[in-house]
Amino acid sequence: MNGTLQEWLSGEIQGLKDAHLYKKPRILQSAAGGRVMMDGKSVINLSSNNYLGLANHPKVREAALAAIEKWGVGAGAVRWIGGTMSVHEELEERLASFKHTEAVLVFSGGFTANSGCIPAVVTKDDVIISDELNHASIIDGVRLSAASYRKSEGWVYEHKNMDQLEDCLKRADHFKKRMIITDGVFSMDGDIAPLPAIVELAEKYDAFVMVDDAHASGVLGKNGAGTASHFDLYGRVDIQLGTLSKALGVIGGYIAGSSSLKEWLINRGRPYLFSTAHPPMVAAALIAALDVMENDPEPMERLWSSSRKWKAMLHEAGFDTMGSETPITPILFGEEKAAQEAERLLWDEGVYALAIVYPTVGKGSARIRTMPNATHTEEDLADALAAFVRVRDRLGAGV
Questions:
Q1: 361 to each of 35, 136, 188, 369, 378, how far by Cα in Å?
Q2: Contact in structure between 223 and 300 (CB atoms under 8 Å)
Q3: Which residues are catalytic?
Q4: To 10 degrees, the CA torsion angle through 86, 87, 93, 98?
């Protein structure tokens, strides 16, 4: 092995450790749920995206097993070469109906959906105007494009600042296309984008809107259909991204929009063109997860009940949840070292809740991000709160 490379890697890793930014994944040893076995220890899991508990739902598991018997375990090719099975087509049709759009194209993940769609729909003659707190996958998708997008050029507006967005649009009139892109639910703060105002400005200045609904899917709107549904903006949002690996409990991402958009992405969405199709059991499991979401309101009701209880308990105990409006509930600890130490102490207390630190969030705004979901019991939440209070008292932080 090359000594120069290994020396550089060792130094950089040590730098992360010295700055309290180093992460090492823990190993899940049981099915996803409110309490899990992880690294040989039973813990309350507050860091899962399994919002509705569908990752281990009996109907979803049964559908996956039946698909293995019928289809096998792999598609054998990328979608356009010969890997598109009828079960993939059925999933896309179901998702389009769910989202009230003409069409849907499924990608291997939400990250690849962003990196496949954004560069495909803009050119060097266009501009992308972006909220400053957009998710990393949006940022990387934007960077892959040929459009103007840089913050230094004035195309990134302050978080949810509609006056700044309008100023950007006024200055962008010389571009051929103007694209506004925002998260629906912001993944680190848990707040909701002001989508009605964004759409109105887009229509006023002849721009088009893309919403990343990774953390709104299964959480907001009718049956969890997302932010456009939540605000009753059907037909007014040009591109919607959704994930299949959070609330739906399996894996993947998708782009929802017009039939023409789907046709274009089939031909120019590079992750779609060069990635093997999902295993058929994944598509079948997702169809079953959609069935649950559309016909059983109980998981979504449990999700929001847990979320409201968790926030109320934290506020009563004096914690700062940073204005969260959704189940994503950050708890502010401030400095990176304090948040990292809080994560370690919480683990000792039997709670798995990750510290989120720079560069994922700004310096000095490190937090423990908690995610109550439909599988948590009142006892889980009470035990977790008691652990947070004990850790806060030991650190003298987090209020």
A1: 27, 11, 8, 11, 30
A2: yes
A3: 187, 215, 246
A4: 170
Between 335 and 93, name the one with better pLDDT. 93
β-bridge mates for residue 103, sequence order: 257
Give strand ranges (E) for 203-353. 208-212, 239-243, 253-257, 329-334, 351-352
pTM over 0.90: yes
Q: How far lies 62's CA from each of 23, 121, 168, 270, 279, in Å? A: 35, 38, 50, 33, 15
Give the residue-averaged pLDDT of 10-25: 88
Yes or no: say if 180 and 209 are a contact pair by the CB < 8 Å rule. Answer: yes
- Tens of pLDDT, residues 223-248: 999 999 999 999 999 999 999 999 99
CA-CA distance, 376 to 46, in Å (whole number)? 9
Query: What CATH topology corresponds to 22-51+297-395?
Result: Aspartate Aminotransferase, domain 1 (3.90.1150)
Whole-angstrom distance, CA of residue 341 vs CA of residue 391: 9
> Rounded to an integer, what distance in angstroms lies between the CA atom of residue 56 and that of residue 241?
24
Q: Tell me: cis bond preceding 297? Omega within 30 of 0 counts.
A: no
Domain boundaries, the chain: 22-51+297-395, 58-295
The DSSP call for residue 302 is: H
Token pair of 323, please? 């204005």
Checking if the pLDDT of 377 tops 90, the result is: yes
Q: What is the CATH code for 58-295?
A: 3.40.640.10
Residue 241, helix vs strand vs coil: strand
- Give the SS3 label for residue 399: coil
Name the DSSP letter for residue 279.
P
Q: Output the six-digit token pair for 173.
A: 């009139």
In eight-state DSSP terms, residue 224 is G
Name the amino acid, one letter, at 313: M
DSSP 337: H
- Cβ within 8 Å of residue 132, ≥6 positions away: 151, 156, 157, 158, 159
Q: How many residues does the chain have?
A: 399
In the structure encoding, which two tokens stand for residue 121, read together?
């729909």
